Predict the 3D structure of the following.
Amino acid sequence: MNRATSTSIAVATWLAWVAAPVLAQQTTEQATQQTTQTVEAPPSSEPAPPGGIITTAPPMRYVSPGYLEYELEDARERSRRTRVALIATSAVFGVGIILAGVGASQCQWVDRAREPDEYLCNNAGDVLVPLGGSFALAGAIGMITSGAMLGVRNRNEREIERDIRRSYYGRRLRWDVDSGRFVF
């Protein structure tokens, strides 16, 4: 087995090791979301808006305030774990860049007249450049993935906070075009 094959196997193993907890967490969250019980709002006694008016407020969910507090706490914990993953993968990326830079300093460019140009490295350069490149690549992939996941988690947390505020303060005052007055 040559060095490129063993390096690719090592990188694939490391990526599988890193991705397994993330996939397990996503599966757990999907199962939790499927078992979440919500009750839809009862039909309103107000007439529906005319066809030309577009409403932007999503329908209210009626959920007990205690459950919303639990859901918010859970969302904050998921957001914190994803933030830690983003910091960890950023550190792996930084270490990979440093290792690749140190390894590249151990190499020199050889310009040959009748043969292809090439880099010649000592043993440290031969080890550190592929190792640092693998770390940097895995860290970059992890940063992109965990950054996207952090955005989704934070959006979910904001939506739960919005639902809690709406449950505390009730519906907003708005202008009803048909009746020509303010309604809640």
